[in-house]
Amino acid sequence: MKKLNWTRKTAKDLLFTVMIFIVTLLAGLFLKFSLDASDQIPLIFVLGVMLIALRTDGYWWGIAVSFLEVFVINFVFVDPFMAFNFSPYTIPSAIVTLAVSLMTSALTIQVKEQEKIRIVAEKEQMRANLLRAVSHDLRTPLTAIYGATSTIIDRYDELPKDQQLELLRDVKNDSEWLMRMVENLLSVTRVTGDDVQLKKNSTVLEELVGSTVSKFNKMHPRQNLHVKLPDHFITIQGDAILLEQVMINLLENAVFHAKGMTQINLVVKEKGKRVVFEISDDGCGIPSERLGSLFNGSWTSQVETADSRRSNMGIGLSVCYSIIKAHGGTMTARNGSRKGAVFSFTLDKEEDDE
Amino acid sequence: MSNNKYKVLIIEDDATIIRFVETVLSTSNYQVITATNGLSGERMASSHNPDLIVLDLGLPDMDGLELIEHVRENSTVPILVLSARSHESDKVAALDRGANDYVTKPFGIDEFLARVRALLRTSRHCADSCSVPGGRFVLKDLVIDYDKRLVTMAGEDVKLTQTEYNILALLSEYAGKVLTYSAIVRYIWGANDSGNVKKIQVNMANIRRKCGFNPGDDSYIINELGVGYRMKDGKED
Question: Which of A113, A297, A318, B57 could make an S-S bridge to A129, C-beta 3.0–4.6 Å?
Answer without folding.
Answer: A297
